[in-house]
Amino acid sequence: MTSSDRMRRVNELLLEEIAQLLQRGIKDPRIGFVSVTRVETTRDLKNARVYVSVYGEETDQAEALQGLSSAAGYIRHQLFRRLSLKTIPTLSFVLDDSIAHGVYIASVLKQLEQDGDEPEVEPDEETDEGRE
Asked: How many angstroms separate the Cα of 109 from the Cα of each of 52, 96, 100, 115, 119?
């Protein structure tokens, strides 16, 4: 097994376990509806970035990140108890806005479709359309 395969497996394992802990084990009221989208560990497995998507306004997202940062030590301790890894990485939580961005793009495309607006495309000089 290559080291990249091992890192991928560790990332997946951490994602699953952290998601379960957030769903069942964290009682911080600042942490509302949070989804873990991905985990990226460093090569030495000492640090991990946990990307989360938080449902709500920007203030809700900021509070959830504060709550997650506060709970990082507890989560790490629970991971140590649950997993048979030699080293449990130090966790840092990062807001992943890719889901919100995707929803925004989809809504813009839907609005364009409903309005019947098609973007104007200038003929390119290199194509047949631009030549006369």
From this structure: 25, 22, 14, 10, 11
d(Cα 99, Cα 71) in Å, to the nearest integer? 24
User: For the residues 74-82, what does the mean pLDDT come to?
Assistant: 94
Query: In terms of DSSP bridges, do strands 34-41 and 90-95 run parallel, antiparallel, or are they unpaired?
Result: unpaired
Domains and CATH numbers, the chain: 3-117 (3.30.300.20)
Measuring CA to CA, how many Å separate 60 from each of 31, 39, 49, 131?
8, 21, 20, 54
Cα 115 from Cα 102, distance rounded (Å): 20
List pLDDT tens digits, range 15-26.
Answer: 999 999 998 878
Could you tell me whether strands 47-54 and 90-95 are parallel, antiparallel, or unpaired per DSSP bridges? parallel
What's the Cα-to-Cα distance from 15 to each of 10, 51, 73, 109, 125, rounded to whole Å? 8, 9, 16, 31, 50
